[in-house]
Structures are given as C-alpha cells and as structure tokens.
Amino acid sequence: MRNTVIVAAMAALFSLPLQAAEPAPLSQGEVRKIDVGAQKITLRHGPIASIGMPPMTMVFEVEKPELLEGVSAGEKVNFQVQQQGSRYIVTELQVVK
Ligand SMILES: [Cu+2]
Fold first, then answer.
1. What is the β-pairing status of strands 76-84 and 40-45?
2. Of 39, 45, 91, 97, which has fewest CB within 10 angstroms of its CB?
C-alpha cells in the first residue's frame, strides 16, 4: 500500500503513466514439458526482469488450463509470469510462430 502511494506520487510528479497500468514485457522461453492435469508447464526460460530471475529451466504453474491449449513441448513461447510467495504462475502464454 505504501509503495503504491509512493509510485503514484512519483508518477504524478513526473507526469508519467502509472507503471501498474502497463503489463510487464513478455519473457521468452522454450517448452520442455506440459502437464495439463496438474496445470503445470516446464520452461527453459531467458531472464525474467519483472521478478528478477536469471535464465534457467523450471516448472511453472499456469493460471488456467486453457493457457496450455495448442502448446507443445519444443515450441518457443512468450509468456508472462507472476510471483506469489514461492509460487510462479504463468498468466499469459503465446506460441511464437
Ligand atoms: Cu526460473
């Protein structure tokens, strides 16, 4: 809450649009494994600036199973991830054609 107020004050001060209104840029990855039942996806991903994560291969949760539709292992994807405590949740997933 306090941070929100500070960010809002700074945005007003510099007449910039609020960062919160804009989603973080998508991160790049390659699909290693998909588990639709468990709503999980294993990605070899590049750096994720929004959560300060270096490149690695790891398992993510997906916000909803529909995100995994039409996605296969081996495909390159752009994705958005949100950190909730120790959970990393993919909220957007696009196959790179
Ligand atoms: Cu990671």
1. unpaired
2. 97
